[in-house]
Design goal:
Keywords: Leucine-rich repeat, Repeat, Signal
Structural class: alpha/beta
Number of domains: 1
Radius of gyration: 17 Å
Distance between the termini: 51 Å
Helix content: 10-25%
Largest sheet: 8 strands, parallel
Shape: globular
Strand content: 15-25%
Order of helices and strands: EEEEEEEEHEEHE
Number of strands: 11
Pfam family, one: LRR_8
CATH architecture: Alpha-Beta Horseshoe
Number of helices: 2
């Protein structure tokens, strides 16, 4: 029986997304494909919604995430966009990801994209996000206006250039993570302050 995992590694310099992702795919791993833009509905197959739960797009040179790029992936639990070169992130980039629990954006975000990320992370569908990783992006602030709106269990901010976290965010982090700790979850908040 097939595991539901499809892996697409570098293939002769392909710069496009695969157009023939099987509808039974639960995990899609694309690596080293030099994809510059994730367009609207990038993973919709013939208008069919995929049952994918894990999407790994690390190391693809992605520069732009357009509005509704992940349309049709409503069951997605984990999205890894680490080690890309994000310069533009639409405020509606993550629209429709109601089941997303883990978002990895490590070593991916330019200074311009950092300002845009705040809008993208304010999508109502991301309220169930449990883990957000933003390591190594030279961020000067947490790109979320109100941390109390999220269900975060882990926020990874190591190797950034945080200048100010803000007292309201510290309070929200403490309250949210205290609630989680009381529920016997393992809680990690990792950051460097300069």
């Amino acid at each position: 029986m097939d595991s539901g995992t499809v892996t697409c590694l570098p293939d002769g310099g392909h710069t496009d997304l695969p157009a023939d992702v099987p509808t039974w795919t639960s995990t899609l791993i694309l690596k080293g494909r030099n994809i510059s833009t994730l367009p609207q509905g990038a993973f919709t197959v013939n208008g069919t919604e995929l049952g994918m739960t894990t999407l790994s797009l690390s190391y693809n040179g992605i520069q732009t995430i357009e509005p509704y790029a992940f349309l049709g992936l409503s069951r997605l639990h984990l999205l890894d966009l680490s080690h890309n070169h994000l310069e533009t992130i639409s405020s509606r980039a993550f629209h429709g990801l109601l089941e997303l629990r883990s978002l990895f954006l490590n070593y991916s975000i330019s200074a311009d994209a950092a300002a845009q990320l705040s809008g993208a992370l304010s999508a109502p569908g991301l309220r169930n996000l449990h883990r957000l990783e933003l390591a190594g992006n030279q961020l000067k602030f947490i790109p979320m206006e109100r941390l109390d709106l999220y269900n975060l269990h882990a926020l990874v901010l190591i190797n950034n250039s945080m200048e100010n976290i803000g007292s309201e965010n510290i309070s929200s982090l403490y309250q949210n993570f205290q609630k989680i700790a009381d529920s016997t979850f393992n809680v990690n908040v990792m950051c460097n302050l300069i």
